[in-house]
Amino acid sequence: MPTFKFPNGVVVELMKGDITTLEVDAIVNAANPYLEHGGGVAGAIVRRGGWGIQEESSEWVKRHGPVPVGGVAVTGAGRLRARYVIHTVGPRCGIEPIERLDDAVTNSLRKAEELNIVSIAFPAISTGIFGCPYDEAARIMARAIRREAPGLRRIRRIIICLYDDEAFKAFNRVFNDELKDFKEP
């Protein structure tokens, strides 16, 4: 499992697996603007965490309106082994610029800091039905984490949880390049 450690103690880990099984303070959900969690990571989160996550999400949208690209909404985590789900809307490649993925990662980390979260897990945001290539998404995510990590005060552990071999290989290659200065032996 590739691990990167920043001077302030923040550890970034890449792993292959099912994000819904992780024991962390917050799981980041790759959501759509209306927080309708039908497929992909979002669907898996509701299937494992319970329908209450969808109900809470629908209520959030009723109160605040759709989540903009790069924005975040927070709900409880139901039966997941987490306290919160941070729903973020990544860009739909070919419709919105992939660079907006930076906003999604940055705003998720900043919201986690506000919530006093110590550990957070991200999926490969925007790479599923939103169609962004793994390499580009990994590069944007790695650079956002590299920029934000030195200023984090509460978060100590950031996990990037990839569901399949192809995603893991791409993220591993890019993170090893982008975060090589922080690679743990």
What brief labels describe this structure?
185 residues
What does this structure look like?
This protein has 185 residues and is α/β, with parallel strands linked by helices. The chain has five helices and seven strands, in the order E-E-E-H-H-E-E-H-E-H-E-H. It has helices at residues 40-49, 51-64, 101-114, 134-148, 165-178, and strands spanning 3-5, 11-16, 26-31, 72-76, 84-89, 119-122, 157-162. A seven-stranded mixed beta sheet has the order 1-2-7-6-3-5-4, sandwiched between helices. The chain starts with a strand and ends in a 7-residue tail after the last helix.
Arithmetic mean pLDDT:
97
Sheet having the most strands: 7 strands, mixed
Number of DSSP strand runs:
7
End-to-end CA span: 11 Å
- The number of helical elements comes to 5
Please write out the topology.
Layout: E1 3-5, E2 11-16, E3 26-31, H1 40-49, H2 51-64, E4 72-76, E5 84-89, H3 101-114, E6 119-122, H4 134-148, E7 157-162, H5 165-178
Helix pairs in contact: 1-2, 3-4, 4-5
